[in-house]
Amino acid sequence: MAHYTHSKVKRNGFQHIKDNGDLVVILKAPLKADNWATTQSKILAQSAIANGDMFLTDVGDDLQFTSNPKSGIDPDLSAANTDDIAAAILDTVNQEVLIVQDIVDKDILNADGDTITIPGLSVFCRELSLI
To answer: From what superkingdom does this record's organism come (predicted)?
Structure first.
């Protein structure tokens, strides 16, 4: 199960994803320690993503980052429902994985005519609380 963000996202906030993310993908068995080449080899499906596909919304005292799902994507590789898969937004210019969120594991076939939907990502930056 993978949930993580790049250190630049931690330092600069979700606006960094909006400003730099240009590819949304489904990854097979992602690890935070993966280098760029390894990450590329784990891409099951991919689609371009633009600034207008990503949103920052105030929800009460919190901030929510969301991205649009991408449908009708032809997978490049396959996966079994026992594989750990995750959705991610990448910065291909700087070769960085900006955010990774676990998604429901399922069979992904790479046969003629098969398409999948890359789900939208959603994450909150919560208001501080008492310590």
So the answer is: Bacteria
